[in-house]
Amino acid sequence: MIVTALFVGVYLTICGKLALIGLQVSPEEEVSTLDRTVARPDIVDRNGAILATDLPVLSLFAEPRKVVDADEASEALAGALGNMTREEIYKRLKSRASFVWLKRGLTPDQANEIKQLGIPAIGFRGEVRRFYPQGRETSHVIGLTDIDNGGISGFERWLDQSSFGALRKSGMMNGAQVQASQLTIDARVQHAVHEVLDKAMEQYHPAAAGAVILNAKTGEVISLVSLPDFDPTIPSEAAEKDRLNRVSGGVFEMGSTIKTFTTAMALELGNAKLTTIYDASHPLVIGSQVIHDSHSRGKPLSLVDVFLQSSNIGSAREALSVGMENHKAFLERTGLLSKIAFELPEVATPVSPRVWRQVNSLTSAFGHGFATTPLQTAVGIAAIMNHGRLVPPTLLPRSEEEARALAVQMVSEKTSDDMRYLFRLNAVKGSGRKANVAGFRVGGKTGTAEKVIDGRYSHTNNFNAFAAAFPMEDPAFVLLVFIDDPRPEFPGAGITSAANAVPIAGAIIERSALLLDVQPVFDDPADIAFAFSD
Q1: pLDDT of residue 30
Q2: Which of 214, 336, 348, 483 is least enclosed by beta carbons within 10 angstroms?
Q3: What's the whole-model pTM score?
Q4: Band of residue 88 on the pLDDT scale cut at 50, 70, 90
């Protein structure tokens, strides 16, 4: 009985040990649990060029409990890995865990060198890593992913917040073939815009610069660039404070570009015509606020001259003719005062006075007193140019028919006609002349806003913008360029919008118009009559 009991005890012990081993997670299974690098869909531009794709890589892991000589192994691996110290590797190899990662995403050379070392208890695991062929050029649009291939910014993050993200978290995407996501971005135009802005950063030394090109008919974003940008393969760069996507994620007082909306409002709601006269002969005083023009002509101005000369006094009187409540309601209708719906997570909420008073209405008429995003400004101007139809922006393909179904009539066809006339006239005779690229019938409006520094407007720190549309007979595209706090190389070079934002816009249009299939027309008598008619 004693012998039998001993044998039974031995066998029960063996069975119990086998059961425990069976219940334990194997190193390979543990890797599978930890490995969340599910394949993501390719992201392509409107022409099929790859903007983001997955590539297979090898990652290095260890089973510390099976490591024979941690000292020797860490010494050998330190030489192969390069960016890890011997102490870091030794600490991981001496861990009591059954599995540890040593290095995610090895280069082929690193993998080959480590294989030749033949170290026991060291293994490789196949993973996928995100690759961005366009690099910095599309960084603010596409965003980037984390070490586990999860989206953390830009369109990559939006993907994870969509139905794809839900399937990915559920594990249903493991090994699944996913269809590419096509964006409205044109990689060729994006390259041109990025290159022009990059040169502008060198020439004007601003804190930042950016541009967005919209299809005025559909709301599709053709290009979106914000500098400084980042290398999506170096996530730490994206976290630096100056790498904000300022096109959709930054709010600014947009200066005189807002006069586009003020003038349209006067035409739409104030019974104004192009020949309506506004008294700009002396400053306008509202309480403690004195509104004046930087280059006062000291005389009454027609609505056309108010726009061409960018008169603050004239714009304020346009707002007075409409009334405070109507003015606020019009700005709300344009979408300038509320957060815009867009596929990128980096979208800022505009800042406006909590209580809307008469002085707020008058200063808002010339772009001071409320802050909005460059993207929203471009969308609103596109509506004024596009026969008055306000279409929400998108990074996903949209037809003109689909856009018309979504559109809201912001202003009348007549107001849109008059505003196209004023835009074209300003590019021929006014502050937008340096963007008047021959053949492409450009129109536009400048904006030079003094920045608020330590609670006061600074006369030496500007946020400059220029909104352009082309071709003006029926604009297909709207471009908005901004340059934040320019510091030109040469003294006297000018820090206003006309001196820098406008020529930047001209260079972008010159580089991109043909890529956008806008055919040049030279020496068009009809266009000249249109531009100079009274």
Answers
A1: 39
A2: 348
A3: 0.85
A4: confident
